[in-house]
Amino acid sequence: MNTLQKIPANKIRQILFLTTLLSFAVLLFWQTAFLISAFLGAVALYMVLRLPMYKLVYEKKWKKWAAATLLMSISFVVIVLPFAWIGYILVDKISPYFNQPQIIIATFEKIQNYINQKIGRDLISQINISKFTEHISDFVTPLISSIANASLNIVFAYFLLWFLLTKSSEVEIWLKKNLPFLPENRSKVLAEVKESVMSNAVGLPIMGAIQGLLAMLGYWIFGVENPVLWGIVTGICSFIPFVGTMAAWIPIAILSFANGDINNGLGVTFWGLIVIGMSDNIFRLLIQKKLGDIHPLITVFGVVVGLNLFGFLGLIFGPLLISLFLLLVRIYLSEFVEDKT
To answer: Where do the structural domains in the chain lie, given as residue ranges?
Structure first.
């Protein structure tokens, strides 16, 4: 008669321990999920400041706390304050439009009527205008809300950044020792994570800033109302692959034509095609050479995922998450699937 085989006591203890550990991990993640963007922001800032920190501490012989204080202060002025200013402009200038959606509808109706007069086709129906306005509202409302609630994330990000900078050696040694990869893949993972962070968290914002500033200048020259606001919107639109800044300056140009301002409409059109368009080609090539290339599909899906998860900062961290996910997939295939022979 067969007897039931007993489960070893050690295996039972291991299962219970792992179950308890996983339960705590899920609970902690659930309660701190709203700080994910702060964590990613701290990691991105650390990647940018890591080399200057090394030079100050090991070449200039600065104290770690002094070097970290200086670099964090510079990053706050150069990175956080401009983002805070952009957030203020968006909240202050865009909110009234969505409190009175008839303003947006009237604007698109004016554009629709102008296109209909010129080409004899109704490209934008009334139904499409209403749906588009609803979609824009669904997109912008959480965006503005996330900007307004960003203070806590900034505080937590800089708290974590202080720890990363002052304990950088210990953190990196711990990571290299405990990453669950084969030894030959550990350095590769860290290098690719750095490249991914620099491409997504540094390259994309630089491109957006360049094109946004050029757009502001053009809008100011050609008499566009609120050039600062629409320059910021143009910079944000640069994150959209394939369409890019055209999603902003083409409607602005058409609206100028519809208002009878032909000269400024032509000015915005040529400025968008030549200055903003050429800057995209030139600076994107230079940035990709320095920081690495970003596949357009990564940006598309990253922006969609990121906006839902992080709000405004999702424009940056969404593509970063997709890049890190694809990196982990490649590592998994390398370690467990591909034939080593």
So the answer is: 36-178, 181-341
